[in-house]
Amino acid sequence: MKRYTRIFINCVSGVSLMALPVVAIAQTAATSGGAVQTISAADKAAGAKAHPQLLAEFGGAETGSQAAYVESIGKNIAVQSGLSGARSDFTVTLLNSPVNNAFAIPGGYVYTTRQLVALMNNEAELAGVLGHEVGHVAARHAAKRQSAATKNTIIGVLGTVLSSVLLGNSQAGQLLQKGFLQGSQLLTLKYSRGQETEADQLGITYLKRAGYDPRAMSTVLTSLANQNALDARLMGSTNQVPAWASTHPDPASRVRAALAYAGTAAKGITNRDTFLTRISGLTYGDDPKQGVVEGRKFTHPDLRLGFEAPNGFFMINGTQAVNISGQSGKGQFTAAQYNGDLDAYVRAAFAGLTEANQPKIDPGTISKTTVNGIPAAYATARVNNAGSQVDVTVFAYQFDATHAYHFLTITQAGGAAVFNSMYGSMRRISATEAAAVKPRKLLVITARSGDTVNTLAQRMAYTDAKLDRFLVLNGLTASSRITAGQKIKLVTY
């Protein structure tokens, strides 16, 4: 989460894959290598308009050698799609986001996050993921999903959790969900299984055309499935984090199909060592400029604040907000424009939960307090939800004359107090504490004689699950043998 500029979901102006014009390319061209098309001026204009908005939503673009490398590989694979034969027609961006995600939009715009790149183990996997995303555009999947379900838009981690766990499909749920979509970091356009299979096959086709090992699609899907399972275990929840692998559903079930399509005897380059050397130094996990989650604690060195989630809850840090999730409630920490009136700020947060033509949620009396010396105001409103009721709370803090921040939480009726400890944990942090917050970095080393998965895992910059994290990061198993000279990824400070 970063300081408020234009925090809410309209920072992407309602952009979705559904809202963008679709490249007019015949299905046969996308799948069988027909005549190369030219990206239309309309598609280029639409993509150019969406691009800066998506950058703002996903943490901005990385720069430097790693970004240039990803851009080069992305353009090389994109021209295999038939959308255009000119590398210059594609804009490939490495996003500063700690979420495993990748996507493409019409107009030649292709994106992947640094976190997803860090999970990959060779260049062919990078090309395969980007080729898969270009394949969705080439096959016009967005337009087909639009006709099937026009409500699909850009939504976020918490929005997915809320709609499936607490809110159902009720009107109240749909309205409340709007508030939790603010500051989302994930494009969760749901493709059908058939479309995912087709995009996998297109990506594999592009890999073959470019001379890569087409089996890379199955190996990266395996890594994504393993990362999803690890995330679920670490969070103590069966609610896996929505990520590239869940917006592109069920990677585990696609591994065998991808391998069969590629052919087990397939050949091609992987450029493993080159890839690992080129991505070494990437920021891994949260960027301190957006705040850092460590277990149940969130610290933002730039905003000079910190808080702690309740026992049994986990947090996911986004570019614009921190999402808090547990079995007994969901929440978000974010910000909005502040004019010095904390009561008005709280009421505006409730008002922002409903659509323009719907009745506004009335929070009633706004209560005042102080939390660790910080002026605060809060209110809870009970809202009907599919025959039952939920409690929605806004708890806001005034940090100075022009900046305020707030929690927005939802629980079953009568359960709002589960977040009281979190509200009371908000505090200012010292300059010394802020300076101590350091980013984690991806470091690629060369293994020496005697190194094992266990000894190398102890160098991971975590206090928990070091071995599990190490194995998933490197695509290894507990029985894997490390050989001298082998390149290995570590996460360090």
- How many helices? 18
- Give the CA-CA distance, first to last residue: 20 Å
Query: Which sequence of strands runs across the widest sheet?
Result: 8-9-10-14-13-12-11
Query: Domains counted in the coordinates: how many?
Result: 3
Average of the residue pLDDT scores: 83
Cofactor: Zn(2+)
Protein name: M48 family metalloprotease
InterPro entries: LysM, Mito/Outer_Membr_Metalloprot, Peptidase_M48
Keywords: Hydrolase, Metal-binding, Metalloprotease, Protease, Signal, Zinc
What do you see in this structure?
The chain is built from 18 helices and 17 strands. The protein is α+β, with helices and mostly antiparallel strands and 493 residues long. It has three domains: 9-154 and 189-284, no CATH class; 288-435, Mog1/PsbP, alpha/beta/alpha sandwich (Protein Transport Mog1p, Chain A, 3-Layer(aba) Sandwich), CATH 3.40.1000; 440-492, Membrane-bound Lytic Murein Transglycosylase D, Chain A (Roll), CATH 3.10.350. The two termini are 20 Å apart. Residues 3-33, 147-189 and 238-247 have low confidence and may be disordered.
